[in-house]
């Protein structure tokens, strides 16, 4: 068996590995299995929570650590442990929530992602359109009702294009806070603990496996994937990706609806070393 030039592959979920029906195609699934049979290591890096991701982890029978919450937590399927990389303190969380509620239109949905639950006070049409059955939400009368034991992993605001501009302005005005902000989809604005990113979490996973970033291929579709693209030896973007993601990628793949991950594996990861380097 020839050694793989890129023995490690990490894929985003929504808009990348999943099609628009939020499913993993049979071609993607079979190609991932073939990649692993040939010595490759495959995992996921997603903004989803554990509960939103576990069915895909189980479908793919993953054994490598999985990057969740856009890098704020790492799940180890071998032990079943969900390990925090970094968290938002309760006092900071409550301060941010109060500020956002005062400054943003009431139509913006705001969600608190805990380690085992997602909390919110309303679900608007944009959230309904973009979420799926795995988005399990506990509705509260107000964020003042958040249980005292909630550990905040991240905050998410779902907003339309004009509201998103206000969120970006808010993030610039609050750049002094120990947070990092990123768009994970066109209507999803995420507030993460400082230092949390898919890229930083990927470095941790690679280190545990004894691999270098140059041995990794990464595929994604949006701005939250850029931190992986900057360090991976082979960054690839799907055809439907954000323009900035495409600009940072070395490869442009078919769209998420055309089994892009399978295309990457079959055409760029599994060929022999000489073919890969051409």
TrEMBL record:
Q: Which GO terms describe its molecular function?
A: magnesium ion binding; phosphatase activity
Tell me one Pfam family matched here.
Answer: Hydrolase_3
Quote the InterPro entries the UniProt record gives.
Cof, HAD-like_sf, HAD-SF_hydro_IIB, HAD_sf
Give a GO cellular-component term. cytosol
This protein's source sits in the domain of life called Bacteria
Q: Which UniProt keywords apply?
A: Hydrolase
Name of protein? Cof-type HAD-IIB family hydrolase
Question: To which species is this protein native?
Answer: Thermoactinomyces daqus
């Amino acid at each position: 068996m020839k050694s793989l030039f890129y023995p490690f592959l990490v894929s985003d979920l929504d808009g990348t590995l999943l099609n628009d029906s939020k499913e993993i195609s049979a071609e993607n699934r079979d190609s991932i299995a073939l990649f692993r049979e040939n010595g490759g290591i495959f995992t996921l890096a997603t903004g989803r929570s554990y509960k939103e991701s576990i069915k895909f982890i189980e479908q793919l029978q993953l054994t490598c650590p999985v990057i969740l919450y856009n890098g704020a937590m790492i799940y180890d399927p071998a032990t079943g442990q969900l390990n925090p990389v970094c968290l938002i303190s309760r006092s900071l969380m409550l301060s941010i929530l109060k500020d956002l509620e005062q400054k943003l239109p009431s139509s913006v949905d705001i969600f608190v992602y805990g380690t085992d639950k997602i909390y919110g006070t309303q679900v608007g049409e944009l959230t309904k359109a973009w979420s799926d059955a795995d988005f399990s939400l506990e509705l509260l009368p107000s964020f003042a009702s958040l249980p005292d034991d909630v550990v905040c992993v991240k905050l998410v605001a779902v907003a339309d294009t004009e509201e998103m501009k206000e969120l970006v302005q808010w993030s610039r005005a609050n750049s002094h806070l120990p947070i990092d902000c990123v768009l994970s989809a066109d209507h999803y604005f995420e507030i993460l603990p400082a230092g949390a990113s898919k890229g930083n979490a990927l470095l941790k996973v690679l280190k545990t496996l004894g691999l270098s970033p140059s041995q990794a291929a990464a595929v994604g579709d949006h701005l939250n994937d850029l931190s992986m693209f900057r360090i991976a030896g082979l960054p690839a973007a799907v055809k439907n990706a954000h323009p900035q993601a495409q600009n940072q990628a070395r490869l442009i793949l078919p769209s998420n609806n055309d089994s892009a991950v399978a295309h990457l594996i079959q055409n760029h990861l599994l060929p022999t070393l000489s073919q890969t380097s051409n």
